[in-house]
Amino acid sequence: MTETLLHASNVAIEIAGLELVSQVNLKVDKGGSVGIVGETGSGKSLTCRAFAGSLAVLGGRISRGTLSLAGRNVTSPRAHAEAGLYGRVVTLMPQNSMSALNPLMRIGTHLTETIKALDADGGIAPKVRATELLDRVGLREPERVLRQYAHQLSGGMRQRVMIALAIAGRPHLLIADEPTTALDVSVQKEILELLRRLNHEENMGLILVSHDLGVVKAATQSVAVMYGGMVVEHGTTETVLRHPRHPYTQALLRARPAIGRTERLIGIPGIPASPDAWPSGCRFAPRCPHALTQCNASVPALETLDAHHVVACCRVHELTTDDRVGASA
Ligand SMILES: Nc1ncnc2c1ncn2[C@@H]1O[C@H](COP(=O)(O)OP(=O)(O)OP(=O)(O)O)[C@@H](O)[C@H]1O
Hints:
By secondary structure, the protein is α/β, with parallel strands linked by helices. It folds into two domains: about 5-220, Rossmann fold (3-Layer(aba) Sandwich); about 235-325, no CATH class. About 30% of the residues lie in helices and about 25% in strands. Adenosine-5'-triphosphate (ATP) binds near residues 38 and 58.
């Protein structure tokens, strides 16, 4: 039987009285992998921070719904912190985390301090454990890397160090927020392969955030598409990318460049929805080619189409699926 590691039920996130994210329903099973995609500002990073229990540093909180991790209710930041799950059960590699390495601290110090803080040496000297971790993330000559500083490493090496730090406490769930951004294509592939190996070989659950659908396709079993602070479509990655049902997912796929693609790329007209002026109904309606007056009446709830596919669009049953947009995903 599959074991649920993370369960977000109708989660909303608020900062300074403004609801920035709403209606997040997501489950990650032990050893499962979920992608979160959406354009900038859609709420991906705040959702990750909520899962990792680090909203408070932004002055944010989960204002509605419930969040449980490894069977514990961690909806409030206090419950999350008191449960001591960070680093051991869940860990977050935030966006641009590579630049968070202290330039004056050797890589070895970063690792041994983290291992000690998490009490995660596993009965061996922290330095030996640090060497093991660098080896595990595919860094050659780990002893040499331990003595180096961040500026002496390439971008790909720094990202591997970040992954080593993230897995130091043997977490059950790794959340990686845009882990391949700012890396060149061949290094991106290697980092994705490493995340996939950790997910498959060590049964570590993975939440992978990206605005690149190709990245998510390569490494996740299911995907949640976010727009305007809400999940608008969710299902197995194969189903969502091959047979997208939400007009926003379809638009994202039409706008995506891919090698060998022959059809014209079509951008998404209009500007993204903004939290200080959310539309009254469907948040994508002002940009949607299929919108009718009824779409402005109320925010559509997620509707289950089948066991592997949920969509929040009030016209989902009328609109035909354009499988061609998914064919090149
Ligand atoms: N600390 C904050 N204070 C106020 N608003 C915030 C804060 N952090 C994020 N927001 C707003 O919340 C919304 C969601 O932001 P979030 O960073 O989660 O988006 P995202 O999908 O991760 O975007 P990106 O791909 O650019 O990282 C945006 O409108 C953003 O401006």
